[in-house]
Design brief:
It is a single chain. The protein has eight helices and no strands. With 205 residues, the chain is mainly alpha-helical.
């Protein structure tokens, strides 16, 4: 049983509220996987060979050289594309969203360790928290929807349920709520986050 949808969820997600509430256990699973990978990545940050991860970082454009508008477009497009692609790939028996969550958590943990060594843990958290409070739950929600697609794909092979209907719910959630929230988090990341980071840096130096 899914139980009654809480009022807060109903207000936040409107016509997708019942669907989102039905994803709560999968959301908690993705959160647990992400946090575990984050902790592992952080703890191994100073022990792993740096070359492979450094090469991965070099594949990312130099964000410091971008204009605020260019940076906003890059971050928003990157998050929008990744969350949609990995969500839809959940049809492949839920494996891609789990893999994405593990890699994402591990990489953020590793980068956070490097940043904490250079700038301190407080400043690292400050640089991640303002936009991360929106971005992280939103991406995890898209991964949870991907897991649900995988579950329904397996059920469809057994001759039960409707994968098409589940896909419609996931895409509706993405268009109406996930995409706007990711755009909002990108806007915060290029505007509010740098201001707060500079303020905290000025207070502790």
């Amino acid at each position: 049983m899914r139980g009654e949808t809480p009022r807060t969820i109903a207000i936040l997600f409107g016509d997708s509220a019942e669907y989102v509430w039905g994803l709560r256990h999968l959301f908690l699973l993705t959160l647990l996987v992400f946090l575990s990978s984050l902790i592992i990545g952080y703890n191994l940050g100073g022990r792993l060979p740096g070359d492979p991860l450094e090469q991965l970082r070099r594949m990312i454009p130099n964000l410091k050289e971008m204009t605020p508008i260019g940076l906003f477009i890059f971050i928003a497009a990157n998050n929008l594309a990744k969350s949609l692609i990995w969500m839809l790939m959940g049809i492949l028996f839920s494996l891609p969203p789990i893999l994405f969550t593990i890699l994402n958590g591990f990489y953020i943990g590793w980068v956070s360790h490097t940043s904490a060594e250079e700038h301190g843990l407080l400043l690292t958290i400050t640089a991640l928290a303002p936009h991360g409070l929106i971005e992280l739950p939103t991406i995890l929600l898209s991964s949870a929807a991907g897991l649900a697609l995988g579950y329904h794909a397996i059920n469809r092979l057994r001759g039960r349920g409707s994968l098409q209907e589940e896909l419609k719910k996931a895409i509706r959630l993405y268009i109406h709520y996930i995409a706007p929230l990711l755009i909002l988090s990108a806007l915060i990341e290029v505007s509010l986050t740098p201001m707060i980071t500079r303020l905290v840096e000025g207070l502790i130096t």
